[in-house]
């Protein structure tokens, strides 16, 4: 088990190895072998990987080694070992989404961003653990700095692999905090780009707000990975994709920062609060103005709104039961786009979760009908029954708030239920 100290911790990086590849002092194959040595040592306790294709990775690293020897690398990430969150398809490994329902499932194709990474010469080494279906149920991965603690989720394996020094970069995804939270827990650099900036095609994070993000050991490697994905796979349909220079911008000091004490502040332990104050004091000595709730009415209002929003999401207080009008889907989304009330945000939450569960229901039924899955039909049906109960809970606990009309999908094993 490693002890983490942010003053001394050195994560694995790739960008600084490239000059050595070009002049022959090092090779992508040797770099990969060093990664595999670390994985052999740390993986039994960290458990970041679901599956690896070591032979395929070695073959890809050998090809990258040849390109560097000939002075023609494909990109600035040519030869870089990388792991893929197991919500995204890979042509040479199964995509199991952290769920027994999808155990052993293979699509035989690469997700769009994985295709882009391979085109750039990246060495796709393995699939990294996700919470089940990218939601709340944790999986086997442990925090690399304290295996008695969580690595965070849902991009658990991605963050842990970087924190353990197994890889220089890994792919994650996020709806609320599934990149930045585990990155914080595991001491990573991470980027959660603008919505739609990186192509999600071939992924199974079905919530409409999902983003692809990158975990890495350095800002340079995180940015290079994002840039190459955007360059070769683009953004989501209808979105311009990530844009910017090939190299990350030089660091510049901010002039002002806002300090928000949101819902978790009251529960934060004393040591964490003291460390936070130390950081703010350091920034102030460097000439950065830090504005808190006591300094500005707008900050106070924003802080209170965030606390209230968090409370509503957790508890859905009784005052929302006073809303009598039912809203259809178009009205809910229009309210959300217009920056509507907290009540409208709750409506969007209900709509999003329900649509995602319906999509998963359809996916399960599609898998069940495949000939190779007939023996697993009973297990898939059990999962669908559990899904039915989840959907019923949503209808019973949330639809009485007067939010949205829900229409649940029909299936071969139950009658259609109308809202």
Mean pLDDT across every amino acid position: 82
Cα-based radius of gyration, to the nearest Å: 23 Å
**DSSP summary: helix tally:** 12
Provide the β-strand percentage band.
Answer: 5-15%
Low-confidence stretches: 315-347, 399-419
| 3D shape | globular
The SSE order reads HHEHEHEHEHEEHEHEHHHH
Structural class: alpha/beta
Spatial arrangement of strands, main beta sheet: 1-3-2-4-6-5
Distance between the termini: 52 Å
Work out the helicity level.
40-55%
Total DSSP E strands: 8
Structure description:
This protein has 419 residues and is an alpha/beta fold. It is 41% helix and 9% strand. It contains twelve helices and eight strands. The chain has a six-stranded mixed sheet with strand order 1-3-2-4-6-5, sandwiched between helices. The chain is globular. 37% of the residues are buried. The model is unreliable at 315-347 and 399-419 (pLDDT under 50).
How would you concisely characterize the structure shown here?
With 419 residues, the chain is α/β, with parallel strands linked by helices. It has 12 helices and 8 strands. β7, α8 and β8 form a beta-alpha-beta unit.
Topology:
Blueprint: H1 18-23, H2 28-46, E1 49-52, H3 54-69, E2 81-85, H4 112-119, E3 123-128, H5 156-163, E4 169-174, H6 180-185, E5 189-191, E6 211-216, H7 219-233, E7 256-258, H8 270-285, E8 289-291, H9 297-315, H10 329-337, H11 342-368, H12 377-398
Parallel strand pairs: 2-3, 2-4, 7-8
Antiparallel strand pairs: 1-3, 4-6, 5-6
